[in-house]
């Protein structure tokens, strides 16, 4: 094992062990673990499946392509099912017509996968789930990677079952119930985001994880805030302990006026009045208008409360802003990116930050300190 490889494995195990010595957020732990599996084991996608109360395997986390893996996990016969039943690792090249799992092989090959490697998650002889690794090429994992994969499957089991002892069966049932309930809530929130932002399901889950990371809330809390906080009509409701997500919308030129009215209502419900409401509303509207004019005729808006501030992110898929366009902004002449819009936004917000989008475009993050 090369030194860099050793460092990667060490860093991964340290990151994962860190999550086990604090209050565990199961969703975040599984997201981190599947991501590390994909990074360390040279696989395209890693997924964790756990058994529900009836013994049926359910996908609860994936490093990427969650929608595709969820479809594959619902097909019945599969390498992971055999691994769960026998408690032994299963490696399978996905032949065109595999008699053991024909539907699974056909669908997996259609998604570009050529092999799958399943490792059992065991507790005292009881198999509670499976770690599935999907690769773009056929052939077995190397001996070292196979041992590391089983070690990571064991870490997953420990993460799900921190509390041991005579009551481990009750703890197991409670943990798996929590995982399943969290996954259902996350999928509901992903559906809301996909509809409101006009993006596909996988992109919506990426957005959900991103918002969870930037607010420091658990994935479950963030999903609850989205499901319970943003409604088409009426003021947003606060959902549980999480800071409320007030509004999530995609918009285009024709929708700028209705977007402005929605934002005004959400800001008023959050406690802004008079000049404070006008200033932040002006900033949000200018940012949205800039996205339409310079960012490909459409954009996406997040509006939420976190701590002592209201936050708004406007993103687009346009060509992006030049590297030298950064705060503090100055009034600019005709032809400059955003004209006077960026200057007006900066003048009326507590802070403004610009970042490149994950796949191009621009993300503009506005913060407004709440009065008092």
Tags for this model:
372 residues, alpha+beta, Heat Shock Protein 90, 5-stranded antiparallel sheet, elongated
Which spans have pLDDT < 50 for at least 5 consecutive residues? 163-168
Shape: elongated
The main sheet orders its strands as 2-1-5-4-3
Structurally, the number of domains stands at: 2
Structural class call reads alpha+beta
Instruction: Name the CATH superfamily classification of the largest domain.
Output: Histidine kinase-like ATPase, C-terminal domain
| Overall mean pLDDT | 79
Radius of gyration: 23 Å
Roughly how much helix do the residues carry, as a percent range?
Answer: 40-55%
Distance between the termini: 57 Å
Series of secondary-structure elements, N-terminal to C-terminal: HHEEHHEHEEHHHHEHHEEHEE
The number of helices is 12
Can you tell me the CATH architecture of the largest domain?
2-Layer Sandwich
Instruction: Return the CATH topology of the largest domain.
Output: Heat Shock Protein 90
Q: Could you describe the largest sheet, including whether it forms a barrel?
A: 5 strands, antiparallel
Brief digest:
This protein is α+β, with helices and mostly antiparallel strands.
Protein described:
This protein is of the alpha+beta class. It has 2 domains: 3-176, GAF domain (Beta-Lactamase), CATH 3.30.450; 191-369, Heat Shock Protein 90. It has helices at 3-19, 26-40, 66-73, 79-86, 102-110, 143-160, 168-197, 201-215, 219-229, 256-269, 274-294, 341-348, and strands spanning 45-51, 57-62, 90-93, 115-123, 126-135, 245-252, 298-306, 309-316, 351-356, 362-369. A 5-stranded antiparallel beta sheet has the order 2-1-5-4-3, sandwiched between helices. A 5-stranded antiparallel beta sheet has the order 6-7-8-10-9, sandwiched between helices. The longest helix is centred in the middle third of the chain and has 30 residues, at 168-197. It starts with a helix and ends with a strand.
């Amino acid at each position: 094992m090369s030194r860099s490889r050793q460092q990667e494995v060490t860093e991964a195990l340290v990151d994962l062990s860190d999550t086990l010595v604090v209050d565990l957020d199961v969703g975040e732990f599984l997201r981190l673990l599947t991501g590390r599996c994909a990074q360390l084991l040279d696989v395209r996608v890693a997924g964790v499946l756990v058994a529900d109360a009836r013994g049926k395997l359910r996908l609860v986390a994936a490093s990427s392509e969650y929608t595709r893996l969820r479809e594959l996990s619902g097909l019945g016969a599969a390498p992971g099912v055999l691994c769960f039943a026998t408690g032994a690792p299963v490696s399978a090249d996905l032949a065109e017509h595999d008699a053991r799992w024909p539907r699974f092989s056909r669908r997996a090959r259609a998604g570009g996968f050529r092999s799958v490697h399943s490792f059992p998650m065991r507790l005292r002889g009881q198999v509670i789930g499976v770690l599935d690794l999907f690769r773009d090429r056929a052939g077995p994992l190397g001996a070292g990677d196979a041992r590391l994969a089983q070690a990571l499957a064991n870490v997953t089991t420990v993460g799900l079952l921190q509390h041991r002892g005579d009551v481990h069966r009750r703890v197991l049932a409670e943990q798996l119930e929590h995982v399943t309930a969290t996954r259902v809530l996350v999928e509901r929130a992903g559906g809301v985001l996909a509809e409101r932002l006009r993006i596909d399901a996988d992109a919506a889950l990426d957005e959900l994880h991103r918002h969870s990371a930037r607010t420091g809330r658990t994935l479950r809390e963030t999903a609850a805030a989205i499901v319970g906080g943003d409604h088409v009509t009426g003021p947003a409701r606060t959902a549980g302990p999480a800071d409320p997500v007030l509004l999530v919308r995609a918009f285009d030129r024709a929708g700028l006026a209705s977007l402005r009215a929605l934002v005004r209502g959400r800001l008023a419900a959050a406690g802004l009045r008079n000049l404070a409401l006008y200033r932040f509303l002006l900033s949000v509207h200018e940012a949205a208008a800039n996205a339409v004019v310079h960012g490909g005729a459409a954009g996406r808006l997040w509006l939420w409360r976190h701590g002592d501030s209201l936050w708004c992110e406007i993103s687009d898929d346009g060509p992006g802003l030049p590297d030298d366009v950064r705060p503090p902004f100055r009034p600019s002449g005709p032809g400059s990116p955003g004209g006077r819009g960026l200057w007006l936004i900066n003048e009326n917000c507590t802070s403004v930050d610009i970042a490149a989008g994950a796949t191009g475009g621009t993300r503009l993050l506005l913060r407004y300190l709440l009065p008092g």
